[in-house]
Amino acid sequence: MQRRSPSTKSTLLMKFTLLLIVLALSLGASVLIGADKKKKSNNKASGQSSAAASVPQMDEEKRALHVLNRLTFGPRPGDVDLVSKTGVDKWIEQQLHPDTIDDSALGARLAPLRTLNMSTKEIVETFPTPQAIQAIATGRMDLPSDPTKRAIYEAAVANYKAAQERKNDNNGQQGNGQGGTTQNQQAEDANGPNPSMADPNNSNDMAAKAKREERQESRMYAELKAQEILDMQPDQRYEAIMKLSPQERQVMLRSFNNNNGDRQQLLNDLSPQQRETLMALTNPQQVVALELQEGKILRAAYSERQLEEVMTDFWFNHFNVFINKGPDRYLITSYERDVIRPHVFGKFKDLLLATAQSPAMLFYLDNWQSVGPNSDVAQGRGGNGNRRRQNGNFRRKQNQAKNKGQQQQQRRGLNENYAREIMELHTLGVDGGYTQKDVTELAKILTGWTIDQPQRGGDFVFNERWHEPGKKALLGQTFKEDGQKEGERAIELLARNPSTANFISRKLAMRFVSDTPPQALVDRMAQTFLKSDGDIREVLRTMFKSPEFWSTDSYRAKVKTPLEFVVSSVRATNADVTNVQPLVQTLNRMGMPLYGMQPPTGYSMKQDVWVNSSALLDRMNFALALGGGRLNGIQI
To answer: What pTM value is reported for the model?
Structure first.
C-alpha cells in the first residue's frame, strides 16, 4: 500500500481540521476551547433576582466564546484570549459604542469601492439606468460631457441598439414565415451567415447579411487585439480600451467576460475608477450591486466594530428591501448607509421614521405612488390637477396604441402595501391588535409620502395634492387633517406601542439568545424598551446582562444562517479575501443571496429553515473548497 508523505499528511490534516472548524462554527459550537470546565457560579452579579440566580450559568471561558459567537460574525484566532483579557463586560460595552473602536484597516479595504460613498444621484448619473439609456438612444437626452461617463453611456446605448436590432431582425423573420429562428440565428451569430437561409434578391436579407458580417469582423479584430492589450501596463491597457469605438469595446469586453482568467488579468492593478469604468462598459447597473455585495462581505469579515455590523444586518433584514425591484438597485446603497447604519443603536422611532421616508422603502412597498381617493389629484381639483390628468390620459392612449392587446393602465390610487407591512412586520406584529380598517386608515394617513424623481435618484418629498383629506382613526386615536405631520404622528404611535416593544424585543432575543427565547427575558427587554422610549442600546444592554443570555441553555443554541456561516469561516481561518465573488456565489447556492430576499419578511433566523441535508452538503463542500484553496481570490 502506498504511503503518504509527511507533507501530504499535514495538508490532509489541515483540510480536515478546517472542515471541522467551519462546520462547528456553522452550529455556533465551541471549537477554540478544550474540554468543558466545571461550572462556576455567577450569581453574585448585582440586580439578579432569586429566580434568575437559579439559571445555570456559563463559566468564564465559555462566556468569551459565547459572546464572540453571538455579537460578532464569528471569532478569529486569538479573539477568545483578547476578550478574556479585556473582560467580557468591558468588551461588550466597547461594541455598544462603536465610535470608540478604531476601524481604519477596514476603511482601507473599502476605499476602492467608490459607489459606497456616492449619493443616489451620483450613482444614477455615473451608471445609467435603462430609462436614461433609452432616452439617449431615442434622442430625448444628450450624452454627458465627462469623457469617462460618456464612454459608459455610449457603451450602454450601443448595447441597447444592438439588442433592438436583434429584436427587429427576429420580428422581420417571423413576419416572413421564418418563426423558428432561435437556433439558426445563434449558429449564424457564432459561425457567420448561412447562405442557404438568405435570399440574394431580398434587400432585407442582404442588409442582415451585411450586419452579420460586420459583427463577425468585429469579433475577429477583438480577438487579435485582446492579447496585445492584456500584455500592456495597467494605464496603457486602460487607455487602449478607451480609445476603441463603443462597438469595438463592447465586443472585446464581452470576450474578456467569457474568460475569468483574462477578465481578472484585464482588471489587475487598475485604479478603482478604472476598474469600475471597464466593468460599467459591459453592465453599468451591475457595478453598484457588486460593490454593495463586496462591501457587505468585507465589513462583516474585517470590521472591528462587529456588533455594529451584526445590528446593521439585523435591521436591514427587519426592514427588508429587494435589490432587483427597479430603481431599488440604486437606492439600497444610501438606504443601508444613511438610513439603517446610523440608527442601529439609537431610538427605534427614529429608525422607523427614517425607513418610512427612505426612497428605497417607499419604492419597494409602493407607497411612493399611493394617492388618496379624495385627494386633489384623484378628484381633478385645481388647474394643475386637470392638466396632469389630461397628460396622463394622453400618455395612456399612446401606450395603448403602441401595445395592442395589453390591459389598460390603471390610475394610481390608495396602496395599502406599506401600511400593512409596517404594522405586521416592522412594529406591532401579526398579533399586534390592529384590524384591516387600521391598515386602510394608516394607508390614507401616509398618502403623499413619495419620491421626487425616483428615476434620477430623488429623495423623499411630501405631496400635499396626493394626500387624503379629512379625519382618520388609527388604533383608537383620531387624526385631524395635518398633512405630513399625520404620518409622523402615526409612526411615533406605532413605535411607542407595547405590542411593538414586545415584538422587537422578541425578535432581538431570537437573534442573540435562541429561536424560542424565554418569555421572562422578552418581558424585561420590552419594559426597558417602553421606559427608555425605544432606546435600542438599552434594550440590548438589558439582554446582554440577563442570566438567560448567559445560561448554559443558550450556549450553542443558535444555528448560523448561510451569511453568518460563510463569514465565520473566513474569520475562523483568518483568510485574506481579495475577491468576494466565490463567497457571493456560495450564498446564492445556499439560498441567501445578498440583498436578494424578495418578500418583505426578510430572511428567517430560525434553524429549521437552514438545517437540512442539502444545506449541510453545501456547507461541507464550501468548507472543503476553502480548506483546499480552491476559491479564487481567497487565501488562508
So the answer is: 0.82
